[in-house]
């Protein structure tokens, strides 16, 4: 599995780029947002990648962050959402927008992506709404952009969180902060989000970030 590509941008097409890695060129498919953020030809570039393997096809899809890659993988678990459709959704909404739309049940936002009809948008919402908080919880550690340094192909490192041995309070504070950040990214005001997280933490003192996000969203949901 090729988890990351770092090299020089050699060519760009309408939906893909060619990255030269020590004399070997790799075609990497990207969405509109990623393509627009590409540097000038000849400059260093790095992307996290996902390899699509079929009997008659090998395709690399590239993402500026691991967060976007994780959303792409999750979207493709929905029946009817292929790799290109997932790229279109991410290109239209971005990873934060995808998380916001799915968590808030905004099918119209998902439907704005090219090739996504109302039925497919609803299916995405229904199938991923319970899974979205988990990706959002990991978002803080996965949102860093890939950096082109060594011009090598290497697997993307798994995100880690350092927790002190005496961990209880420190770990809970980190979960709370990450949940608050996720809610603010969804568009909630800081005051309302902080109150919801505090209430959820009081009700579930051992909850991790994903559980806090789910509980907070229930508290914030209009009645």
UniProtKB/TrEMBL annotation:
Q: Where is the Helix-hairpin-helix DNA-binding motif class domain?
A: 73-92, 108-127
- Quaternary data: Homotetramer. Forms an RuvA(8)-RuvB(12)-Holliday junction (HJ) complex. HJ DNA is sandwiched between 2 RuvA tetramers; dsDNA enters through RuvA and exits via RuvB. An RuvB hexamer assembles on each DNA strand where it exits the tetramer. Each RuvB hexamer is contacted by two RuvA subunits (via domain III) on 2 adjacent RuvB subunits; this complex drives branch migration. In the full resolvosome a probable DNA-RuvA(4)-RuvB(12)-RuvC(2) complex forms which resolves the HJ.
Tell me a GO biological process for this protein: DNA repair
Q: Where is this region: Domain I?
A: 1-64
Gene Ontology cellular component list: cytoplasm; Holliday junction helicase complex; Holliday junction resolvase complex
InterPro entries this protein is in? DNA_helicase_Holl-junc_RuvA_I (IPR013849), Hlx-hairpin-Hlx_DNA-bd_motif (IPR003583), NA-bd_OB-fold (IPR012340), RuvA (IPR000085), RuvA_2-like (IPR010994), RuvA_C (IPR011114), RuvA_C_sf (IPR036267)
The gene it comes from is ruvA
Annotated region (Domain III) at 170-223
- Show the stretches that span the lipid bilayer: none
Q: Which SUPFAM superfamilies match?
A: DNA helicase RuvA subunit, C-terminal domain (SSF46929), Nucleic acid-binding proteins (SSF50249), RuvA domain 2-like (SSF47781)
Main location, first listed in the record: cytoplasm
May I ask which residue range the UniProt record assigns to the signal sequence? Answer: none
Purpose: The RuvA-RuvB-RuvC complex processes Holliday junction (HJ) DNA during genetic recombination and DNA repair, while the RuvA-RuvB complex plays an important role in the rescue of blocked DNA replication forks via replication fork reversal (RFR). RuvA specifically binds to HJ cruciform DNA, conferring on it an open structure. The RuvB hexamer acts as an ATP-dependent pump, pulling dsDNA into and through the RuvAB complex. HJ branch migration allows RuvC to scan DNA until it finds its consensus sequence, where it cleaves and resolves the cruciform DNA.
Q: Give the keywords, sorted.
A: Cytoplasm, DNA damage, DNA recombination, DNA repair, DNA-binding
Q: What is this protein called?
A: Holliday junction branch migration complex subunit RuvA
Compartments, as annotated in UniProt? Cytoplasm
Q: What NCBIfam families does this protein's entry cite? A: ruvA
What does the UniProt entry state concerning the protein's domains?
Has three domains with a flexible linker between the domains II and III and assumes an 'L' shape. Domain III is highly mobile and contacts RuvB.
Q: Name one GO molecular function term.
A: four-way junction DNA binding
Instruction: Return the similarity comment.
Output: Belongs to the RuvA family.
Q: What is the lineage of its organism?
A: Bacteria, Pseudomonadati, Pseudomonadota, Alphaproteobacteria, Rhodobacterales
């Amino acid at each position: 599995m090729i988890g990351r590509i770092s090299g020089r941008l050699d060519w760009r097409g309408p939906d893909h780029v060619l990255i030269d890695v020590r004399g070997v060129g790799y075609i990497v498919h990207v969405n509109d947002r990623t393509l627009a953020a590409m540097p000038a030809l000849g400059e260093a570039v790095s992307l996290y990648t996902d390899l699509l393997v079929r009997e008659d096809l090998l395709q690399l899809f590239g993402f500026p962050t691991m967060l976007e890659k994780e959303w792409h993988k999750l979207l493709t678990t929905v029946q009817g959402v292929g790799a290109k459709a997932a790229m279109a959704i991410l290109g239209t909404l971005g990873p934060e927008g995808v998380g916001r739309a799915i968590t808030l049940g905004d099918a119209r936002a998902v439907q704005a992506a090219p090739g996504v009809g109302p039925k497919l948008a609803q299916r995405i919402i229904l199938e991923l709404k319970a899974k979205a908080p988990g990706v959002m919880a990991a978002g803080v550690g996965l949102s860093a952009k890939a950096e082109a340094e060594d011009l090598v192909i290497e697997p993307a490192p798994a995100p880690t969180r350092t927790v002190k041995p005496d961990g209880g309070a420190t770990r809970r504070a980190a979960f709370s902060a990450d949940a608050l950040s996720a809610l603010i990214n969804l568009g909630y005001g800081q005051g309302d989000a902080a109150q919801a997280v505090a209430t959820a933490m009081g009700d579930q003192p051992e909850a991790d970030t994903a559980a806090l996000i789910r509980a907070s969203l229930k508290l914030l949901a209009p009645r």
